[in-house]
């Protein structure tokens, strides 16, 4: 009984450590996004997303265009908050979890708050994480992006952004 309890405590501690690393790297990605550090953003983006977009250079080009359009419209990031990661699930040779995010933007004529989730993926037992914005995912495309996706990790419904004057 003591041995079983000890094993459960160790497993729980390891899982928390893995989740903390995922959250820490998600925070690093948000800093890269809000500071227009495209190379760093690329580092934290899941490679299958980059491949679908057309490769590293195309991805960076799209980020730059999006940033310019956002700034030309008078919009800017106010903050991106990262919440507590979900329990991790095994997905083939990967580990996945969901991380809630709240994006606050200053718009030309008000503010916007958008809540969504990052799908965090690691292939090296939690050392390095990459992320996929779940707003990009549907039931029909998730398997094409992540062939080993474990359906026990349920992605919550998308929320409609809130706008304030």
Could you explain how this protein is built, in words?
By secondary structure, the chain is of the alpha+beta class. The chain has one domain: Nuclear Transport Factor 2, Chain: A, CATH 3.10.450. The chain has five helices and six strands. The chain is globular and about 45 Å long. The protein starts with a helix and ends with a strand.
Short description:
The chain has 165 residues and is an alpha+beta fold. Helix content is 41%, strand content 27%. 19% of the residues are buried.
Keywords:
single chain, 165 residues, alpha+beta, Nuclear Transport Factor 2, Chain: A, six-stranded antiparallel sheet, 6 strands, globular
Topology (SSEs and partners):
Layout: H1 2-34, H2 38-44, H3 47-53, H4 56-72, E1 76-82, E2 89-91, E3 94-107, E4 110-122, E5 130-133, H5 142-145, E6 162-164
Antiparallel strand pairs: 1-3, 2-3, 3-4, 4-5, 4-6
Helix pairs in contact: 1-2
Measure the end-to-end span. 59 Å
For this structure, the CATH topology is Nuclear Transport Factor 2, Chain: A
**Strands, count:** 6
Q: What string, H for helix and E for strand, traces the elements in order? A: HHHHEEEEEHE
**What is the CATH homologous superfamily assignment?**
NTF2-like, domain 1
Question: Can you tell me the CATH class?
Answer: Alpha Beta
Number of helices: 5
Q: Helix content range of the residues, please? A: 40-55%
């Amino acid at each position: 009984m003591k041995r079983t309890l000890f094993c459960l405590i160790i497993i729980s501690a390891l899982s928390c450590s893995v989740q903390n690393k995922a959250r820490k790297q998600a925070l690093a990605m948000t800093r890269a996004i809000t500071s227009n550090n495209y190379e760093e953003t690329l580092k934290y983006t899941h490679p299958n997303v980059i491949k679908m977009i057309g490769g590293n250079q195309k991805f960076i080009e799209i980020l730059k265009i999006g940033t310019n359009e956002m700034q030309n419209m008078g919009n800017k990031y106010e903050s991106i908050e990262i919440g507590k990661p979900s329990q991790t699930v095994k997905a083939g040779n990967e580990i996945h979890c969901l991380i809630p995010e709240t994006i606050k933007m200053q718009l030309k004529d008000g503010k916007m708050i958008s809540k969504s989730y990052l799908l965090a993926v690691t292939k090296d037992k939690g050392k390095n994480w990459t992320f996929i914005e779940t707003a990009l995912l549907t039931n029909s495309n998730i398997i094409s992006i992540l062939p080993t996706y474990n359906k026990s990790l349920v992605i919550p419904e998308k929320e409609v952004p809130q706008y304030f004057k």
